[in-house]
């Protein structure tokens, strides 16, 4: 049913077939061994003194969060829901970093009551809103800077151009009050995240070196001593297609040298240096299984209508926040029965396209396709409410054992009126 490929062999093709029989499709399968391998791999690529945070937005499934934290990563969260997911698996609220450009007083107050004590702020308004939310609680914050950044090798550019993220470098100098305590809220450092999904080691190191340089420049210009510097991430991974996450064998030495030059006290925690990663840690863990409901020919094209569409995978790519969706199922090597097809979902919209050029061997109704590398920005980055279809089951494997199986659902509840 599922092709005899490296991924299928690694997850055991027969076990996936059993899961399809037990749970049906669409079906996400996450492998905790792949998560642990990725966390261990990135730790080997980083200096021991650098703190690693997992960006929960990549996949907030509780089993994923448990796996990354059990192997030494902290958590970066961006919503009250992610705070609940993190604390729900036993993460210490005071060790979380809360980020995002549009935090409300209600959200920040809720997070602070939960025990969050470190935020990234992105403007004077954001900082003042945090101060108002903190009340009598002592809260630290990083100032996020829209750094110059590099122009090559990144899947998504986060800085170096006009952006909703962070404070432009020039404005940081013009607004020294951003680096002054307000009430019990105090600045402790800088946060720079310039790019995501950088597969090339040299390009990634250049990004991180630029971010380090921006933090040093900001400290020199402002006269502020940072005790924490978050230099972002950018660690790459394939998306919805075969492949392996990139290795960065020279990054440990290169980053150590860059930090030694720019921040001589970093090895003793003066300042503490932090990096973030989402997709690199969890992308390989996920496979989406989807059944072909129909095989149709229209003009020169063959369409495979699947039971998973953009409500289950990649809906956010149309917003420019993910790689262009070009899902490629894993399967046997090409032979005379391999066809180039257009993969579409079941939704009543022409937007519901998973791939315009997928190669599929012996396409047939009832065939189950396995789309790899969807452990990051899979289900929760999709249009889950669009057309109201039932969502895929998510199954978590530890080895061959099912340790969790659940289906997300949307519910409606009465909305309380906000105080005037």
Question: Can you describe what's shown?
Answer:
With 420 residues, the chain is of the alpha/beta class. It has two domains: 6-29 and 284-407, Lyase, Ornithine Decarboxylase, Chain A, domain 1 (Beta Barrel); 92-277, Alanine racemase (TIM Barrel). It contains eleven helices and 19 strands. The strands form three sheets. Strands 2, 3, 4, 5, 6, 8, 9, 11 and 12 form a nine-stranded parallel sheet that branches. Strands 1, 13, 14, 15, 16, 17, 18 and 19 form an eight-stranded mixed sheet that branches. A two-stranded antiparallel ribbon has the order 7-10. Helix 4 (62-70) links the parallel strand 2 (51-55) and strand 3. Helix 3 (32-45) packs parallel to helix 4 (62-70), helix 6 packs across helix 7 and helix 9 (201-222) runs parallel beside helix 10.
Helix content: 25-40%
Count of discrete structural domains:
2
Continuous helix count: 11
Average pLDDT, rounded to a whole number, is 89
Number of DSSP E strands: 19
User: CATH class of the largest domain, anyone?
Assistant: Alpha Beta
The unreliable regions are: 3-11, 149-162, 318-322
Order of helices and strands: HHEHEHEHEHEHEEEHEEHEHEHEEEEEEE
Q: Please state the CA-atom Rg, rounded to the nearest Å.
A: 23 Å
Reported for the largest beta sheet, the result is:
9 strands, parallel
Instruction: Determine the CATH topology of the largest domain.
Output: TIM Barrel
């Amino acid at each position: 049913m599922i092709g005899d490929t490296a991924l299928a062999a690694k997850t055991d093709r027969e076990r996936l077939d059993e899961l399809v029989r037990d749970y049906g499709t669409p079906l996400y399968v996450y492998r905790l061994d792949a998560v642990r391998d990725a966390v261990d791999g990135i730790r080997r690529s980083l200096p021991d003194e650098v703190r690693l945070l997992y960006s929960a937005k990549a996949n907030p499934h509780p089993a994923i969060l448990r796996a990354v934290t059990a192997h030494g990563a902290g958590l970066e969260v961006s919503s009250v829901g992610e705070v609940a997911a993190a604390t729900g698996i036993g993460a210490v609220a005071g060790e979380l970093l809360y980020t995002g450009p549009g935090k409300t007083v209600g959200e920040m107050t809720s997070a602070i009551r939960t025990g969050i004590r470190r935020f990234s702020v992105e403007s004077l308004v954001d900082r003042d809103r945090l101060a108002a939310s903190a009340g009598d609680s002592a809260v630290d914050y990083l100032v996020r800077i829209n750094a110059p950044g590099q122009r090559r090798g990144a899947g998504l550019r986060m800085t170096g151009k006009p952006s909703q993220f962070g404070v432009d470098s020039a404005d940081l100098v013009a607004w020294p009050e951003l680096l002054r305590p307000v009430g019990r809220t105090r600045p402790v450092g800088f946060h720079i995240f310039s790019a995501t999904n950088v597969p090339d080691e040299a390009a990634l190191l250049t990004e991180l070196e630029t971010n380090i340089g921006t933090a040093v420049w900001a400290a020199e210009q402002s006269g502020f001593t940072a005790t924490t510097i978050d230099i972002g991430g950018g660690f790459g991974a394939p998306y919805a297609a075969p492949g392996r996450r990139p290795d960065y064998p020279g990054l440990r030495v290169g980053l150590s040298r860059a930090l030694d030059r720019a921040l001589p006290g970093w090895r003793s925690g003066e300042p503490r240096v932090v990096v973030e990663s989402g997709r690199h840690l969890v992308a390989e863990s996920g496979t989406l299984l989807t059944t072909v409901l129909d095989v149709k020919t229209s003009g020169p094209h063959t369409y495979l209508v699947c039971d998973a569409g953009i409500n289950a995978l990649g809906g956010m790519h149309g917003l420019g926040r993910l790689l262009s969706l070009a899902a490629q199922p894993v399967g046997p090597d090409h032979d005379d029965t391999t066809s180039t097809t257009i993969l579409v979902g079941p939704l009543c919209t022409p937007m519901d396209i998973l791939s315009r050029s997928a190669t599929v061997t012996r396409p047939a109704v009832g065939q189950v396709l396995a789309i790899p590398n969807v452990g990051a920005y899979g289900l929760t980055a999709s249009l889950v409410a669009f057309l109201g279809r039932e969502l895929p089951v998510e199954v978590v494997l530890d080895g061959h054992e099912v340790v969790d199986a659940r289906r997300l659902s949307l519910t409606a509840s009465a909305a309380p009126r906000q105080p005037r």
